[in-house]
Amino acid sequence: MKEKKQVVIIGGGFAGLELINELQSTDEFQITLVDLNNYNFFPPLLYQVAAGFMEPSAISYPFRKILRKKRNVRFRLSALQEVIPQENKVILSNGELHYDILVMATGAETNYFGNENVARYSLPMKTISDALALRNLILTRLERATRVNDPERRKKLLSFVIAGAGPTGVELSGIFAEMRKNILIKDYPELKDEDLGDIYLIDGQGAVLSAMSSNSQRYSEKKLKQLGVDIRLNVMVNDFKDETVYLSDGTTIPTRNLIWAAGIYARVFEGFKPEDLGPGRRMQTDAYNKLYSYNNIYALGDCAYLKDDPRYPKGHPQVAQVAIQMAKNLGKNLKRPEGSSWKPFEYKDKGSMAIIGRNKAVADGPGNSFFLKGFPAWFSWVFVHIMSLVNFRNRLRALYNWTGYYINMDQQFRMIIRPRDNK
Questions:
Q1: Engineering a disulfide at 394: which of 18, 253, 263, 389 sits with its beta carbon 3.0 to 4.6 angstroms away?
Q2: DSSP 358
């Protein structure tokens, strides 16, 4: 009986799970998925959890339940510490694994661009824990503001600065603005309109949603301003200290709340050589997602920098569709008979979209072939995101949450829940 190839996949996001789906149909491989969490989650909807519009379980699902019927897949809850390529071995936080094929699908982490105060005091938006921390902070600030008599102090508590005007920043500022307009006055009668603070959206580029079409940029900026969001473009956050955000144009914003959605870079692990890394610390690969220095290590998704695509000289967009398509292509190649030619990766742009608020969204077709705005774009956004969730239960919960908000313009999950440390 032919011995199975040992495939170790580090990271259970879009790329990791898609690769498992491709390889599970053959008995040629024995797969081990390694992840820091025991669940998969859907990053595009983290902001909904942060704002209290969705519960964490609506956008997450346990790996062991996802993998239950996949006979050739095992799961290891662990953190990667080091790769030893010459021994085909990875060192984990709770042991080690040997591999015939290693796939790095480790995603990206928040890039604070070397600013220590921003790293220490701002709130990122990369994980479920980040989203819950932000939800707790927002609700705690509101409760505290009801007991504060000083108007200046109250405004600092309830003003939010969001750094980064990509989809996450636009979606956060939009949903915060709608909360301020439709929900907070009803729930917090101690506060008046003028007490609720301001929402600022900051970006170093000249437009919101800079990766999208000019139509999407103009519409999004217009709708955000109508919601009362203060947009500052061509300016960056220089520092965050003494309850003040310092901007590169010399202005300041008094606030206790800075949300950081301004940049990401790939995680770096011991065992790889400096020349393995490219822009944004992404692992440099050939057209088949194989690292140049090794014959059995691959990188997918946000942590991969595929150099051989002239259409994307700075690397492919760090979005879900790239990760999914890379994983599908690699899976098909790995299943090809030995000696047969592999197919190089070719990204097929499926367009992009962003939501601003209720009935407010934008969608660009592939290559900006068409543009949608308003309700049609909002409905498309809801449909695409529901169908992208990992299983039927998550889709049903998300649909229920959105339907409730659409009808009532209200949140359901405004509980301050802090885990207790019993150590």
A1: 389
A2: T
- Euclidean distance between CA atoms 182 and 409, whole angstroms: 7
**pTM of the complete model beyond 0.85:** yes
Alpha-carbon gap, residue 417 to 361, rounded angstroms: 31
CA distance 276 to 290: 11
Residues 145 and 105 grouped into a single domain: no
One domain, residues 171 and 290: no
CATH number of the domain residue 272 falls in: 3.50.50.60
Full residue range of the structural domain in which residue 11 is found: 5-36+78-109+265-334
Residue 60 pairs in a beta bridge with 41
Same domain, 141 and 89: no
Q: Are residues 366 and 308 in the same domain?
A: no
292 and 250, same structural domain? no
For 205, left (φ over 0), alpha (ψ -120 to 50), or beta? beta
Q: How far is residue 233's CA from residue 392's CA, in Å, rounded to a whole number?
A: 40
CATH number at residue 189: 3.50.50.100
Return the sign of the alpha-carbon dihedral for residues 391, 392, 396, 399.
positive
With respect to residue 272, please indicate whether it lies within any of the assigned structural domains.
yes
Query: What's the token pair of residue 261?
Result: 């959605």
17 SS3 class? helix
The question of whether 194 is a catalytic residue gets the answer: no
For 358-407, how does the pLDDT look when each residue is reduced to its tens digit (9 = 90+)? 899 999 999 888 899 999 999 898 888 888 887 777 888 788 777 776 67
Give the residue from 332, 295, 287 showing the smallest Cα distance to 311.
287
Which residue of the set 18, 22, 171, 178 is catalytic? 171
- Tens digit of pLDDT for each residue in 92-142? 999 999 999 999 999 999 999 999 999 999 999 999 999 999 999 999 999
Measured between alpha carbons, how far is 221 from 388 in angstroms, rounded to an integer?
27
| One-character DSSP codes across 34-87 | EESSSEEE-GGGHHHHHTTSS-GGGSEEEHHHHTTT-TTEEEEE--EEEEEGGG
- Contact partners, residue 58, CB within 8 Å, separation at least 6: 45, 49, 394, 397, 398, 401
Smallest Cα–Cα separation from 296: which of 340, 330, 269, 339? 330
Last residue of a domain, one of 334, 364, 392: 334
Specify if 70 maps to a domain.
no
Is residue 48 in a domain? no
